[in-house]
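User: I'll paste a sequence; please echo it back and then give the predicted structure.

Assistant: Echoing your sequence first, then the prediction.
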Amino acid sequence: MDIKSQIIDKIKRNKISTTEVADCLGKTGVIPNANAVNRGHFAVGSVKWIYAYEESNWPIHEQARDINEGDVVFIEAFDCGDRALQGELVTKFMVLYRQAVAVVTNGLMRDANDLIKENYPVWCKGFTPVGCFNRKPSKEFDPEIIKTHKEMYDGAVAVCDDTGVVVIPKDKFTEDFLGKLDFIEQQEDIWFDCLDRMKWDTFDIVCLKKYLEDRK
């Protein structure tokens, strides 16, 4: 199993939260405006980066064909204003028929009632009934943005839960990062033991780290 697969497996088996993963990343990695639509979902997987632009969802339909089972689909919106990128139809295709484990976007969605009723694993900025147009954009998308954002997101690892979505960059696919995931889990166990069993206050636990004194 390669390092990326080990990271996904460790996070999935231990249900390591986005909060903990962001801490391992030095409190970075969040996708802004990606809020859980339905509570209680936890998803981790390889990122499939998809883009929409010029108030058109044509590129989404086109790129959705290439989603693989287990992917976290991240749809990034460019120049789409306040229009929804997609609704229930495309989300169902991605989750049910392409077997994506999550659909994430920094833009808006529609068909909120259906996304909620079907309990789809969706994270988005919010909702609007007004969608993008089903037409081919008048020009090709900026190749430099495609290059840089595909390098940044495509093939990275995303973790999604009620708190939001965090992306682990590809340059963090290392043994060192695996060690950080182990450390953050152990630290959380120690902190809550100090709080619940030893009844310490959080200043002693988090700031002074008094539990380390016993190890000196």
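The domain at 3-168 is CATH 3.50.30.40 (Glucose Oxidase; domain 1). The chain has two domains: 3-168, 175-215.
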